[in-house]
Amino acid sequence: MDFDATSAGIEPGGLRTRSEIKLLICYILYSVRNPVSAENLAIIIAEDGLANYFEVNTSVNELKENGSLQTDENNELLLTQSGNEIARTLESALPFSVREKAVKSAMNMTSKVKREKENRVLIEKSEYGYSVTLLIMDSELELMSIRVLVSDSLQADIIKEEFLKNPTEVYKTTLEKLTGYTNN
Predict the structure, then answer these.
(1) Where are the domains positioned within the chain?
(2) I want to staple 56 with a disulfide (CB 3.0 to 4.6 A). Which of 42, 140, 159, 164 is the partner?
(3) Residues 119-128: tens digit of each pLDDT
(4) DSSP readout, the chain?
(5) What would the CATH number be for the domain defined by 18-114?
(6) What pLDDT band is residue 59 in, cutting at 50, 70 and 90?
């Protein structure tokens, strides 16, 4: 098989042809059934060494040009009917390990993006350091907000990342501490 894709950063077993990369892109979008930004899709695939980051972006553009992908109002990628057919028909052409790794990463990424959309973190510099406000939301309803003052931006970023990993746990733990009630 002739490789026509750059192999920089590709792990053993990774994809080295554009047609495989395009198929993987369609398969991921077919499997997660949620729109994904082109940037996040490239990160999902490149982070696991499945394909070269730049090749993924080139393949996304080619899939949009041939009508297999389109973008929604948020500029996120969606499969068209032909993209769905490609994924459904040719998914077994991809190695199982590649499919499994890609879908797991994609599900993690879409969960993270959803948590970040549903919950907010505001970081503001003040004369005393950084004020970090954690907003736990249910749709548009603010369930809880917590404001913490930290000394530097690194601490603020760490708090943001840790909060966004599991805002539900922060909410649950805070309520347990405030009410004295533990639900075990």
Answers:
(1) 18-114, 119-179
(2) 42
(3) 899 999 999 9
(4) ----S--TTPPTT---SHHHHHHHHHHHHHHH-S-EEHHHHHHHHHHTTSS-HHHHHHHHHHHHHTTSEEE-TTSEEEE-HHHHHHHHHHGGGS-HHHHHHHHHHHHHHHHHHHHHHHSEEEEEEETTEEEEEEEEEETTEEEEEEEEEESSHHHHHHHHHHHHH-HHHHHHHHHHHHH-----
(5) 1.10.10.10
(6) very high
